[in-house]
Write a structure and sequence with these properties.
Blueprint lengths: L13 H21 L4 H16 L4 E2 L8 E2 L6 E8 L6 E5 L3 H6 L5 E9 L3 E8 L2 H12 L8 E5 H6 L4 E4 L5 H11 L12 E3 L4
Parallel strand pairs: 3-5, 8-9
Antiparallel strand pairs: 1-2, 2-3, 4-7, 5-6, 6-8
C-alpha cells in the first residue's frame, strides 16, 4: 500500500465544525484572560493546576524549566505527567532529562503524578508517589543513552505501582470501583494491586 492509499477519509459532520469552533472560542477566552497563546501549553497548565490542587501544591510553575508545581509552605515539588485513556500504554514520559533532573527524582522533596484523562478534562485516575529508585533508573538511562540520541525515558504505570510502590488515587468525582474496573481492563495482572481496598481517595494520600 503506497502513501496515497493510506488514511481514513470521511465527510465531516456540520456539528463537528460548529461544536469544535465553540469549544475553541471558549478556550481562546481563557487564553486571552491569562495571556497564554500556546494552545498545547495552556491545556497542559490547566491540567497541571487541577492535579496540583488535588495534592496540596498551591504554586504552579509558569516557566519552561523546573518542576510543575510547589507548595508555598514547604519545600515540596510536584512533577505531573499527562496520559490519555485511549493510549495503548499508560505511563509517563520524561523528555530532555539531564543528570541534574534525573537525580532530583531520588530527592524526598519531589513527588510525581501520572494523570490519566478521558478527553480534555475528564480525569480517570492518578498514579502518585515518590521513590529514590525511580531517580536511579532515570539517571542510568540518561548516562547510558546512545550518543546523539534525545534523552527520553518512558515509565509505565505497572512499574510505578508494582516496583516503586506508587499509590492509585481516585479523583473526587469517581468511585474506587470505577478506577479498579479501568485498571483491570487495561492490564489483568494489575488486579492484585487495583483492588478497591488498595485504591486511595485524595484525602487518604
Amino acid at each position: 500500500m503506497n502513501i496515497f492509499q493510506k488514511g481514513n477519509y470521511r465527510i465531516v459532520p456540520s456539528d463537528f465544525r460548529t461544536l469544535g469552533i465553540t469549544a475553541l472560542v471558549d478556550l481562546n477566552k481563557f487564553q486571552d484572560k491569562f495571556g497564554n497563546y500556546d494552545t498545547d501549553t495552556a491545556i497542559n497548565e490547566i491540567r497541571d493546576a487541577i492535579i496540583a490542587n488535588y495534592f496540596g501544591f498551591d504554586l504552579l510553575n509558569f516557566a519552561k524549566h523546573g518542576f510543575d508545581a510547589k507548595k508555598s509552605r514547604k519545600e515540596e515539588f510536584l512533577e505531573v505527567k499527562q496520559c490519555s485513556i485511549s493510549s495503548k500504554r499508560y505511563g509517563g514520559t520524561w523528555n530532555d532529562t539531564n543528570i541534574e533532573k534525573a537525580k532530583a527524582f531520588s530527592d524526598k522533596r519531589l513527588f510525581t503524578a501520572i494523570a490519566v484523562w478521558k478527553g480534555a478534562s475528564d480525569l480517570q485516575f492518578v498514579i502518585y508517589g515518590q521513590n529514590k529508585d525511580l531517580g536511579k533508573y532515570l539517571l542510568d538511562r540518561v548516562k547510558n543513552r546512545k550518543p546523539g540520541s534525545r534523552s527520553t525515558q518512558n515509565v509505565n504505570i505497572e512499574t510505578l505501582i508494582k516496583k516503586y510502590k506508587f499509590s492509585i488515587v481516585c479523583p473526587p468525582d469517581k468511585t474506587k470501583e470505577y478506577v479498579s474496573t479501568i485498571l483491570v481492563g487495561y492490564k489483568k495482572h494489575l488486579s492484585k494491586y487495583s483492588k478497591v481496598g488498595n485504591i486511595k481517595t485524595i484525602e487518604e494520600v
